[in-house]
């Protein structure tokens, strides 16, 4: 099976293709031809009462607490080419995004909503990359190609105790030959905190042929000092104790150097087409007591290919006295993306609401008119 091609340039944009474009949104739930803008009821009905159908009557959906909503059900072969979605920041870690390919009972993608779009901390960070763009204020975009041969099913589960309102549009193509393209997978894992001297696992037990294409880390530091000496390791095919690919440090893997520390400025956020650290959350002297970081690395021009098996882990490592390494106990949440020759893969159990919870004090909770550490009187 040939790899799914991600074209980083415009060399093929002018080529004629015998495909058709469809789009699913609250204005056209099934993407049908001529099916858009026909709604007579929806979240915008009251605002459009003087105008009638065609005037933004159904721009969004409400998802009740504990409910799973079908974002899209697509029959037959095709390829999702763009996803735009937005909701309030309070929901970014309480919504679970899932994608099922070709009628599979298990999802290939199961990732918290915010983490999939490189915003894992519930605090907005602008991301300017080729496959993920996060724009003010919370307009999330994915350009990851998502091909399928028999059908696609995308859902959003609300794990919180309150209802949420979501706006979205999923654009896809039909009519092409997708028989030689691999399926996109995305898995989320969190070590909170990491075990002492035990690497954080990004992926394990992945079997089949494919290629690893992306990493996002929401990294919470729980101690003073530098935290990014740890190496990322890719165990390919027959690798057991030792990996074929071993990095040289966390900041090196994400394209930075020397602690991301620009002299006189300290930690410096950056966002490029293929890698970045778009988020640096600093302590505020009150409830936000620890540093938090968001980093991504897309292997678009340098996919990591495997033929039989894949395992990936990363160390949480700092410094102690005498220039000795210090294993850390940090909060590390990883989103790992890869293409595989099959629609399902071994994955961790679905995270609970407690597994997903972010503790960031006032920046990530609604204003209750009282201390965020206590319920209002």
List its traits.
eight-stranded antiparallel beta sheet; Jelly Rolls; mainly beta; 377 residues; disordered N terminus; 3 helices; disordered C terminus; eleven-stranded mixed beta sheet
- Integer average pLDDT: 93
Q: Which runs of at least 5 residues are low in confidence (pLDDT < 50)?
A: 1-5, 361-377
Q: Which fold name corresponds to the CATH topology?
A: Jelly Rolls
Tell me the Rg in angstroms. 21 Å
CATH architecture: Sandwich
User: Hey, roughly how much beta strand do the residues contain?
Assistant: 35-45%
Give, in order, the helices and strands: EEEEEEHEEEEEEEEEEEHEEEEEEEEEEH
How far the N terminus sits from the C terminus, by CA atoms, comes to 61 Å
The class by helix and strand makeup works out as mainly beta
Number of strands: 27
């Amino acid at each position: 099976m040939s790899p799914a091609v991600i074209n980083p340039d415009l060399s093929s944009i002018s080529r004629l293709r015998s495909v058709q474009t469809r789009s699913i949104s609250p204005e056209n739930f099934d993407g049908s031809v001529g099916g858009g803008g026909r709604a007579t009821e929806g979240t915008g009905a009251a605002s459009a009462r003087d105008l009638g159908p065609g005037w933004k009557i159904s721009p969004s959906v409400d998802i009740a607490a504990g409910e799973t909503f079908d974002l899209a059900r697509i029959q037959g072969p095709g390829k999702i080419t763009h996803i735009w979605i937005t909701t309030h920041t309070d929901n970014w870690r309480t919504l679970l995004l899932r994608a099922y390919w070709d009628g599979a009972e298990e999802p290939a993608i199961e990732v918290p909503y915010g983490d999939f779009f490189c915003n894992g901390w519930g605090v907005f960070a602008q991301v300017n990359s080729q496959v993920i763009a996060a724009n003010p204020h919370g307009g999330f975009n994915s350009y990851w190609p998502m091909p399928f041969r028999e059908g696609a099913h995308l859902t959003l589960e609300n794990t919180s105790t309150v209802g949420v309102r979501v706006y979205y549009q999923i654009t896809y193509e039909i009519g092409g030959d997708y028989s030689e393209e691999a399926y996109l997978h995305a898995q989320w894992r969190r070590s909170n905190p990491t075990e002492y001297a035990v690497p954080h696992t990004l992926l394990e037990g992945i079997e089949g042929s494919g290629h690893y294409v992306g990493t996002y880390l929401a990294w919470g530091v729980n101690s003073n000092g530098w935290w990014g000496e740890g190496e990322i390791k890719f165990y390919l095919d027959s690798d057991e104790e030792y990996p074929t690919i071993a990095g040289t440090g966390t900041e090196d893997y994400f394209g930075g150097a020397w602690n991301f520390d620009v002299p006189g400025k300290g930690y410096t956020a950056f966002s490029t087409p293929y890698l970045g650290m778009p988020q640096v959350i600093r302590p505020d002297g009150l409830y936000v007591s620890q540093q938090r970081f968001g980093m991504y690395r897309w292997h678009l021009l340098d996919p990591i290919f495997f033929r039989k098996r894949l395992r990936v882990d990363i160390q949480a490592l700092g410094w102690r006295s005498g220039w000795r390494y210090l294993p850390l106990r940090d909060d590390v949440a990883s989103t790992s993306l890869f293409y595989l020759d099959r629609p399902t893969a071994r994955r961790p159990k679905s995270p609970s609401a407690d597994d997903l919870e972010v503790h960031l004090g006032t920046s990530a909770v609604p204003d209750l008119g009282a201390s965020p550490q206590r319920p209002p009187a």
